């Protein structure tokens, strides 16, 4: 079949952010926009010629069209084999699982994660490497550089591939295999956790749970694993049908966007367990009756209890957390006598540590938790980990949480997001903080004394690469911290994130309301950054 060479010119701004290139659907729909980016991936990674590639996405609006474009470009550029999820679907952790299982040279994931979907909403694309994880910065920088010089892309003139028909077909010289997007992933989960114990918990007659798939990708995965394989009651999975616009919702599993589920956990007859995942299935939220587990606490609890679960019985080697994630995990690492790494925001920074066997568990405050089983954060994995823990410890979520705080102390934690802020104002605010940094150590702010203040820079302990300007960190003598950074996943304006943490060793104070406990620190953070004067905002848009 004849390869067609189409002349093109570069588009501005195809720099991948925290997790790939995310833009409005309308931007992606411009003729040549997606093609340029995909060709840049193919030009940057010569190993893809003659190699194999996994392709799939979270099913949001434009997923199917984008996949057809990618299949044609990949075939025209000599990719030998393409593994595609039926219907064009794959959760992000399932792509990682399939890349690793079938030893492909990488994968292309189509998603804008927790951002809304639909014709006027968001779309995204990212490349995952042969280890199954998001491409490191060296690769995304090279892809971006290529987007700035690209002058042609290669494609084929072929009818669309039937994405709904499992089996093998060909496109030019390329073999395309349409596979069940769920099976390999579900098998992996079954190998890691004690399904008998969870099955028993579900059938004990006194355990009520719901999993909210938020009309996003985890619906089919959760139905297969929770209802079919583990015997949870039909209907345990709510909002389980993936929709192109997520039913008009915001598929972000947090207290603000999963309110229907949160409400079900309230009251004396609230659910024993509630969990949710996001657009592409890599995030998780964990709830107990009248109780919310912060992602930072969740990571620490999983680390402290991992030895109780089959897949982690031999113990964990080390932990990593992103810089803004609370230091609760460090306390567990200290107790276990293992390393705890602090990395920049972005799952890609965990890849080298996982590959080198330096860590087993990793997590981020942004509702991401995972382990060395794949190279992405994994929403359903975290849910199954918690379910296995509940089954083994025979305690409620609240009991496990309270017990953890009693043992290790409590790192109160909250994140305040100011969304849709004027970009210049947001950058001005960060510059202002940067200028303050040298004079902050030793200064008294409210009742706190600054012990260090910096713009976080990270040197990867495995390959020595350096990532600078990763967020402003202000640490206090009490152990409290304030962190400021601008989100790298938004598609319009800027989102200012302010992360606040405060350590409380006294169990008598562990059940205070988080926002009350954090108030003094919140006021320091607002004043220091001049948030109101610089952004015009008196209150954050989202508090988690
Ligand atoms: C992505 C990254 C995460 C990161 C999160 C938030 O998550 O994979 O590593 O923590 O964005 O990033 P930001 O604070 O820059 O918005 P996801 O679920 O969107 O892929």
Automatic annotation (TrEMBL):
Family annotation (InterPro entries): A-D-PHexomutase_a/b/a-I (IPR005844), A-D-PHexomutase_a/b/a-I/II/III (IPR016055), A-D-PHexomutase_a/b/a-II (IPR005845), A-D-PHexomutase_a/b/a-III (IPR005846), A-D-PHexomutase_C_sf (IPR036900), A-D-PHexomutase_CS (IPR016066), Alpha-D-phosphohexomutase_SF (IPR005841), PGM (IPR045244)
Pfam families per record: PGM1_C_vert_fung (PF24947), PGM_PMM_I (PF02878), PGM_PMM_II (PF02879), PGM_PMM_III (PF02880)
CDD domains assigned: PGM1 (cd03085)
Cofactor(s) recorded in Swiss-Prot or TrEMBL: Mg(2+)
GO molecular function: magnesium ion binding; phosphoglucomutase activity
Keyword Phosphoprotein annotated: yes
A GO BP annotation: glucose metabolic process
Known EC number: 5.4.2.2
Domain Alpha-D-phosphohexomutase alpha/beta/alpha, chain residue ranges per copy: 14-152, 185-287, 296-408
GO cellular component: cytosol
Catalyzed reactions per annotation: alpha-D-glucose 1-phosphate = alpha-D-glucose 6-phosphate
UniProt entry keywords in alphabetical sequence: Carbohydrate metabolism, Glucose metabolism, Isomerase, Magnesium, Metal-binding, Phosphoprotein
Protein family: Belongs to the phosphohexose mutase family.
Protein's recorded name: phosphoglucomutase (alpha-D-glucose-1,6-bisphosphate-dependent)
